[in-house]
Write a structure and sequence with these properties.
This protein is globular. Helices cover about 45% and strands about 15% of the residues. By secondary structure, it is of the alpha/beta class. An eight-stranded parallel beta barrel has the order 1-2-3-4-5-6-7-8, surrounded by eight helices. It is built from twelve helices and eight strands.
Length: about 300
């Protein structure tokens, strides 16, 4: 059966997106993530591991991967943490208790990732009911492009959560045209001077600079988090300019760019950028040795900058 032209074009773009997505993960297995992580740790970077599970992965297998990831992150020492997606564990309190016990045993904190607005409320409820931040470092990712993130920032401050501010992989259905950069900075302003620790997860040099300026001016413990696979530009130099730690988020598992197809429909010129990305090689060599401060845990960063309370 012959594909219609429109359907054929979508199939080609989907294949291209999948190919480019592989640039942003270390590989399908934890071993692939460790292969990338070891030289990064040797260069002075703290690490974040994030397992990108498939929709049909059994929760028990996701848990096993999370448990093994804690052990892998404990091996190089330092201030590493694990990013988790609680819907992948079916919001199961028993599974999470097993994971939290392992995280404490390994000294590897957990951070709840953001997925979409539909999962935001149950994720926060789960954190409040099960995570008990007072018993150890717990974090939550807040997307700048969601209007609700300003209120969620207040909740995070109240619970004493570490916050990773991200652009967000999906738009807010209530405000789909919300500017992600402006929204990002708004969330940072809400957290400044009040949050326990803020991780600025952005490769946008303008957004990252403004965010770090706001946080350091408010004496808020903070750091810059970079995604393995994205161009560095002057991001490491920017972190050193503000004297803040740098860490690298290393994803592994199933490659996907969930917002890529929608972006292509709005911006056809992005196809050329995707083609360039499709032939890009391993970017590990673009991470320089750190000559400034290596990334520390939230507690060590707090110790350096001074604890801020609401």
């Amino acid at each position: 059966m012959r594909l219609q032209p429109g359907r054929a074009a979508r199939a080609v773009l989907h294949t291209l997106v999948q190919r480019v997505s592989r640039n942003y993960i270390a590989g399908p297995t934890l071993g692939d993530a460790q292969r990338i992580s070891r030289p990064l740790a040797a260069r002075g970077y703290a690490l974040t591991l994030g397992y990108w599970d498939a929709a049909d992965d059994p929760a028990s297998e996701v848990l096993a991967t999370y448990l093994a990831s804690c052990e892998a992150l404990a091996a190089p020492g330092g201030a590493n943490y694990l990013s988790i997606k609680i819907p992948a564990l079916k919001y199961d309190g028993g599974m999470f208790r097993a994971l939290q016990e392992k995280s404490r045993e390994c000294g590897v904190p957990l951070l709840f990732d953001a997925l979409d607005t539909e999962n935001a409320t149950p994720t926060f409820k789960f954190i409040a009911d099960h995570a008990k931040p007072s018993q150890g470092e717990v974090g939550w990712a807040l997307p700048g492009r969601w209007r609700r993130s300003l209120d969620d920032a207040e909740r995070a401050i109240e619970l004493g959560l570490v916050v990773r501010v991200v652009k967000g992989q999906s738009p807010d259905p209530a405000e789909p045209d919300r500017d992600p950069g402006a929204g990002y900075v708004s969330v940072v302003r809400r957290l400044a001077g009040r949050a326990r620790c803020v991780r600025v997860a952005s490769h946008d040099p303008v957004v990252a600079r403004e965010s770090l300026a706001i946080l350091t001016a408010a004496n808020t413990p903070c750091e810059l988090e970079l995604l393995y696979g994205l161009p560095l530009g002057g991001q490491v130099a920017l972190a050193q300019e503000f004297d803040v730690p740098v860490r690298v988020y290393v994803a592994f598992g199933h490659a996907f760019l969930p917002y890529a197809m929608a972006s292509l429909r709005k911006d056809p010129a992005a196809i050329l950028r995707l083609l360039r990305e499709a032939v890009r090689r391993d970017c590990l060599s673009t991470f320089p040795d750190l000559t400034g401060p290596a990334a520390g845990s939230a507690d060590s960063v707090i110790g350096r900058a001074g604890r801020n309370t609401p």
